[in-house]
Fold this sequence. Notes:
This protein starts with a strand and ends with a helix. It has helices at residues 17-23, 33-38, 48-55, 96-149, 156-180, 193-208, 229-246, 281-284, 304-314, 369-381, 392-401, 420-430, 449-452, 465-477; strands at 3-7, 12-15, 59-65, 70-80, 86-94, 189-192, 212-217, 224-227, 251-262, 265-274, 318-324, 328-336, 361-365, 385-389, 408-412, 436-440, 457-460. By secondary structure, the chain is α/β, with parallel strands linked by helices. Adenosine-5'-triphosphate (ATP) binds next to helix 7 and helix 9.
Amino acid sequence: DPLFITDREFNILRANRAFHEFVGTEEVIGKKCYEITHGKNKPENYCPHLDTLLTGESSLQEFYDEEKNRFLLYTTSLIKHQNGKELIIHHIKDITFLKSLEKERDSLLSQLLQAQKMEAVGSLAGGIAHDFNNILTGIMGHAELAEMKLPPDSPVRKNIAVIKEASDKAKDFIKQLLLFGKKTQIERKVQDLNTLLKDSLKLIKKMLGEHITLEFEPSAEPLYAYVDSAQFTQVIINLAVNARDAMPEGGTLTIGTEREAEKGKDFVLVRVSDTGSGIPEEYRQRIFEPFFTTKPEGKGTGLGLSVVYSVIERHGGFIEVDSEINRGTTFKIYLPDSGSSTVHIPDGSDGSEELPCGEESILLVDDEEMIRSTGRMILENLGYQVTTAQNGREALEIFRSDPDRFDLVLSDLIMPEMRGTVLYRELKRIRPDVKFVLITGYGIHEVPPELRGEFHAVVEKPFRTTELARVLRDVIDS
Ligand SMILES: Nc1ncnc2c1ncn2[C@@H]1O[C@H](COP(=O)(O)OP(=O)(O)OP(=O)(O)O)[C@@H](O)[C@H]1O
Ligand SMILES: [Mg+2]
């Protein structure tokens, strides 16, 4: 490290080689230290030398050397020479590396804080979503029941349509909430992101509206990543909706992909760019926070980007944002590259809306009164005979007393005392060919993967009558 000694009057008496190199000159002896170190003709106010003279103590100061872009730690200490004269030792240390570590630590700390916040909101959200789904099942179910009982030309149908539409919105909202909840596990497989994106373009185009142009710029080669396709699509949708909101007058949304090396690893990069309003500097730190929104009440929940953030994080990736006011915003999603290829399995879907009915006997098990009563009405309305039980134990007793009576058991997964999975095991022991449909409030992810294949079907709350009717018929007929 550079070292030199001065007398009380700032004259440099001795200096080491490192100091000569540091200031870039050999001629330092006899010069004033302020001339040499900062090219001034008098000491600065913050001069460590003066500080030490005044206090008699060591002085320690940090400087930023703009010219060379380095951080310096400057120390001065007072010593007494044998002849009684006071001398000052100056020591300069380059601490640029330490500074960069400090910066890294600060950024890790803020990432940790962010992660903790997400975690807290996640478990809260999971809890709320569960209860909310039960309530919603009641609302949707009864709206559908009421609709069925109305004459075709009833003016009340309009009101019911609005209830159903609002419930659908609430259902989407819950889906977002559940996405962060700890309860959702990801179901990943290696797949080509270009294909996945191409499949969702139609949906995105529809959401954007006429005034926005959608451009797709996929990489020439397939880009394989290990992702949960439903969650990945949700990420893109959330970004696209934000882009749309940022371009009320119209503009262009570009989705592009490429392979990129970052931090020494291979990544698959997905860019989502808009030509919208941009994000003001002061918001950029906060946009990924749950419930942070700049949109008017009732318009934004502030969940979109926090879902994006937590989904990407769970995929082992990260997200960056570049934004310029009135020019636009680009979100860059980096996901670990998984090189190899695998089969793409398209989801099957159907379009039919008629309600398959039946007269069979069904045992409905749920600890929630709302679900039992709504479920009973829906099932009876479809023609089935319904018996209800409040929990697994009660269901088991009812079933045991007459095992052949029920054509199907429809049961909730999470219940006090006995979970749906355990109930199924017990029922099977009594009657190996029992047909069992599981209802879950947290989505399919809640069912342990090794058990998923076991059940005849899994229905997610809040269920729609049409869906339930079809599933029941399929299972009973199978
Ligand atoms: N592409 C974008 N351009 C400009 N601002 C954006 C963009 N994306 C996000 N923002 C800003 O970030 C905020 C948070 O976004 P986020 O998606 O989390 O919530 P939201 O869109 O307000 O509500 P929600 O997505 O739940 O309906 C937005 O309110 C907006 O201010
Ligand atoms: Mg949003």
